[in-house]
Amino acid sequence: MDNALGLALDFMIPVNFFYSTKSGSCKKPQTVQSFIDLAKETNGYQLLFDNGAGLSNMGPITAAALDGLTTVEVGSSKAGRGKRATGGLNKLYTIPVDETMDKLIVTVTVASGNVAPIILRNHQDKLVSKTYFLTMGCVWVIENPHPGNWKLIVPTHIGTHSFKVTASSVSNIDFEYYFVLKQRLGFNVEVPIEYPLKGKRYLFI
Fold it and tell me: Distance (Å, rounded) from C-alpha 77 to C-alpha 173?
């Protein structure tokens, strides 16, 4: 687990787990804690399908992951995220969308029940159709989403659920930083350090 996580983080590679309920498959692999942790820590997906055909439909998500996905929002019913809509009938989650996003992916998974009542509304409050249905959830894939606040609405009767919102962009913007500790050993030497040291002079680069 540590080795896999270290390599994934070093090379900035998301680790995805796609499961099947087909006869002969592993029993509930989506409940394996190491799989859950690895996907979460590397910004990967865990998706459950009825068959291989469902998996083949995930090409857009796989392609977006290769381009580089950024997590916009995550939440779950257990975490107490979201606000009650008027009347207390729904869980309302706000999704901020800006002009840098070329593809928006919204994934919802549920513990049980029908996902049909779960809806996504765009910046103009218009209903957005689901792209894929999973065994225990659903997915929206939106190309060139309009900037603004989008809304994910989950009826209370759905019960335990979680959601993840990711976005990709053709603009590859990378940002890294490190600290340099200057030492004098007959001549100036700059030593990169991971964290600044209290009481020491350093450069932020």
Answer: 32
Q: From CA 173, how far away is CA 158, in angstroms rounded?
A: 38
Distances (CA, A) of 2 to 42, 67, 121: 12, 25, 39
Residue 120 neighbours by CB under 8 Å, 6+ apart? 106, 127, 128, 130, 140, 150, 151, 152, 153
Local confidence pLDDT in tens for the 205 residues of the chain: 888 888 888 887 888 888 777 666 566 666 778 888 888 888 787 877 766 666 677 776 766 666 667 888 888 886 444 444 444 568 999 999 998 888 899 999 888 778 889 999 999 999 999 988 887 888 999 999 999 999 999 998 888 888 989 888 766 555 566 677 766 655 566 667 666 666 565 454 4
3-state helix, strand, coil in the chain (%, to 5): 20, 40, 40
